[in-house]
Specification:
Chain lengths: 163, 163, 163
């Protein structure tokens, strides 16, 4: 990371892991109103099928470009989108800080989201990888961009909550 | 955690990850007789449905309050509980050290336990989160309390081995 | 690991996690041609059912003993082995550095590989543990040996890509 101080590299890596853990906790606890606060005002959040991402096709299942749009989504989840509630459980592994570019820290990880509906067994809901750009603001790391590139086909219409 | 030495915070976080990895190894290898030694003499181990935990309902699927009770459970697993053996595989992510309280280190993580029965495909057996209180004793971290709060319904009666 | 400098232990542990993350990325991206470069020239790569490993039986589902054999496997995957392509997604947890022996760093982790076939839901493809021997070469960690000891029965013939 150009710092040449190994302790700083280690501290950054663990800070990113901590950010990912807090993000997962927020969603797994269903505290969707806090979700936009993980992002900068102008930001990108996209949920993209892997096939589209790998081919450079722009079509995303969800695409939001500001914190305001994220808040609208949360309102939709809470108030207008008809859906059966379900639990999410995020398992995140292979967290990596891969570099810096244009003032952003580049990072990523693999993820698996397990879904549990009432009175049903848990299932593999969505698996894929996070591709992130992070910035530091008032001492906290925020997402300038989070792409969720998912392997799992067949289920995009049923994704109600953020991944 | 109040140490103001970032290296100590980092060392503690990695020590907790290591504890969780050794705990998982113990159970995944089926070395149940070693499982009570991860706990203090007086201790709490509970397996609780998420719905009960979130509503503050005390009803737990399993609840043990001492190392002796944990040893009784291990005896039961080995000698008296009728069950078909199965393999467990723990996947633990999002390990966090969140603070200190009353001499305990507060920590937690998300977990997924994969079960494999003889001649059957692996399945998602139990997913949830660990909520832990740790103490240091003779240089080792021990569990004063481990709550396993699980999302997965429908399966509690079939949980034989510790999670 | 005998260094008596906690920062070195921490740096090694995070370096091993990074190696595991890069290895998973390579396979999850389907960049199989790069896979042999994670290994030393003379090396061991085995995929072994847990039951055989635990009983000390030598029978492995796959067993390669040199980088050349790994390259042959990659050629087979690309050119000769008939199979329906599928996506892999590795989730790795509980990374541990457990010691040193004969110039090798001993390490391991639990893993879960999720498979996604075209137009099918994702499934639990293979769960198990990695048992590794690592060596440092020109500043990089390489696998002198990687054993993938898998719990999951019933599916070995359908394993085409490396785990």
């Amino acid at each position: 990371m150009g710092e040449h101080n190994p302790l700083l590299d280690i501290a950054l890596r663990l800070e990113v892991e901590n950010l990912y853990a807090r993000y997962a906790d927020c969603l797994d606890h269903g505290e969707f109103k806090d979700w936009p606060d993980f992002f900068t005002e102008e930001c990108t959040y996209k949920l993209i099928p892997r096939e589209n991402h790998d081919r450079g096709l722009p079509l995303a299942t969800l695409a939001f470009e500001s914190k305001g749009m994220l808040r609208d989504r949360v309102f939709g989840i809470s108030e207008t989108l008809f859906h059966q509630p379900y639990y999410q459980r995020h398992i995140v592994s292979g967290v990596r800080v891969t570099g810096e570019e244009g003032g952003h820290i580049l990072a990523g990880a693999n993820y698996l989201v397990i879904r549990t509906k009432k009175n049903q067994p848990s299932d593999l809901f969505n698996a894929g990888r996070y591709i992130d750009r992070l910035v530091r603001s008032n001492g906290r790391l925020l997402f300038a961009s989070r792409l969720c590139v998912f392997d799992t086909e067949l289920i995009p219409n049923s994704i109600i909550y953020p991944i």
